[in-house]
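Exercise 7. Predict the joint structure of the components listed below.
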Amino acid sequence: MILEAQESVCAALEAVDGAGKFKEDAWTRPGGGGGISRVLQDGAVFEKAGVNISVVYGVMPPEAYRAAKAAADDQKPGPVPFFAAGISSVLHPKNPFAPTLHFNYRYFETDAPKDTPGAPRQWWFGGGTDLTPAYVFEEDVKHFHSHRGERRGLGGIFFDDLNDYDQEMLLSFATECANSVVPAYIPIIEKRKDTPFNESQKAWQQLRRGRYVEFNLVYDRGTTFGLKTGGRIESILVSLPLSARWEYDHKPEEGSEEWKLLDACINPKEWI
Amino acid sequence: MILEAQESVCAALEAVDGAGKFKEDAWTRPGGGGGISRVLQDGAVFEKAGVNISVVYGVMPPEAYRAAKAAADDQKPGPVPFFAAGISSVLHPKNPFAPTLHFNYRYFETDAPKDTPGAPRQWWFGGGTDLTPAYVFEEDVKHFHSHRGERRGLGGIFFDDLNDYDQEMLLSFATECANSVVPAYIPIIEKRKDTPFNESQKAWQQLRRGRYVEFNLVYDRGTTFGLKTGGRIESILVSLPLSARWEYDHKPEEGSEEWKLLDACINPKEWI
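Solution:
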């Protein structure tokens, strides 16, 4: 199922890009499992687009468990046997008016820590999709949100620790979420990919890419989990843009289009 | 003393840059203390150069304590009262043949955690200086290392948890280290700042800048400590370059100058 999701997302992206093709790498994880990374780099529409799937298992250190599990009340002390399968993707378009998209859907299982045998086995689904624009087009955000259940930041649907229905039902929910990504995102890209832009708008996109890198490397639980369980670094960091910029204490002029984006990030809105 | 160190480093950098001037911001930390950030951006020689000093105190969460302290055998459970003073700097030159320099020297004090009163108060010095070139010039690395005591990676002197001499003596050791930065680095910059370079050499520097961002945001204990104690984000992230690049699975051709740098990063050498 995650293979099919990867295939259909990549096919849709290649079609909209028109020039770039995905390059594929299969990899195995020394501790158990492996994955397939597909990356389209420097295409006509996308600066960088990565779609990873992985099925990994083994034993994870306590720090990785903290990154994997949303609920903090459940601190396992020792190394934790685990199984995880998922799809994750970040799409960075070239045009500053076309938003970056991230999505990730995953299934987790953990056993009792090695030093407390007999504790119950746990499983849960988690995931989300979110939109990271450099400029706000209210109509795009509304279109995107008409596919959502709950929201976080400027856009998306996020859930975690989901295990209070039967597994089959939750699997179809996660599958449906993954299948909604293409119809939610591609129309926005089609609309914005050829919008004319100037150098200073491109520079603003680069600054927002810098902020994306910061969030991704410092706070993203998927990235942290991957790095702490010895995942393949090149696959984990496919999420980073092709290029980014950091200017000290950059502040857009109040009331400008750049300022409106920042304002929307700081003061979340109900879009629909 | 840290004010003087900041002043003398910035003066030496402005002199070698010739065009760029440091911009200064003073800030206070809501939880206690504050600092002064000085940043030179888009100069003639430096793409971005930041020199921060700070004196902060208050109470830090356990994660911040783990970031602050090198020795892992000393896990404090609750919030820890602390005092920290230090200087830290990252200098990114424009020319791809001129190396990036990082240095940081700091003094720490912690009290017993709030829930175990009576436990002893601790203090220690830590710090280091290291060179991050995009190309290896053996003579530059040798020159730089002639100022060192111990080494890590391609270059530098690092120490931590230093508290087994009297405080005054350790303070003069740390001061001497900080004062060695300028004579160790400026001659390398003078030699390399006008070396001709082509586009592909600049692109390699951008890729290495990307790797720098990765190490800095994921692993750097100073960055982690700053972010987890609610430090001023713009000051903490002054260490990031003006721009950076990530290409998927980039591998330099074996035997090339780019490959030699990677090889030296992977297989540490005794340079002198």
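Discussion. The domain at 2-266 of chain B is CATH 3.40.1500.10 (oxygen-dependent coproporphyrinogen oxidase).
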